[in-house]
Amino acid sequence: MTIDRAWFERDAPIVAPELLGKRLVAATTEGVIVAGRIIEVEAYTRDDPASHTFRGQTPRNSVMFGPAGHAYVYISYGIHRCLNVVTGATGDGQAVLIRAVEVLDGLETVVERRAGRSHRELTNGPGKVGEAFAIDLSHNGLDLLDSRNAVHVADDGTPPPVGPVVGPRIGITEALERPWRFRVPPVR
DNA sequence: AAAGAGATGGTCT
DNA sequence: GACCATCTCTTTT
Questions:
Q1: What is the pTM of this model?
Q2: A99 closest-nt by C1' vs CA
């Protein structure tokens, strides 16, 4: 089941906890499908010192100022590729970072891509999700609400957790007081 | 179990 | 030239 775009046009801290339980799908041209249930996210907004959009629009973050439901992919520390879903109205500069998923389909492929990692280390971090789902910059700007696209997000009917664990965001040095990290319990 | 450091490259000042 | 929305490996307790 696809998700209505208006659902993503709300503010990131509202969308983020409700994104828990949604299905992230990535297909290769060879037809290999990897899918997982989103279990950890973080919200980033325009007036947020920790957000890429805090200092205004640049070539890198321009997708975040575009329409909701599209993918914002960025390279972290020169190595990792991290996937966000743009939220809010066009021009807002908001997104939700997908930090962790639970693999549902294509586990064999994920194990291959994440060679040498234990099961629990497969997709428990944004860079790890990027590797497991083979996300790269070519996906930047892709419409994640179109199920025909190689990478997309869908609603498989799993309800969001009743009491998501809320906590501080990770790896940032600003606005640590904003509790905009949401996770399906139990934590780690 | 915890702490430290290197990898690695695009982006912005 | 500095700074990262990270991960992994090594060293130390």
A1: 0.95
A2: C5
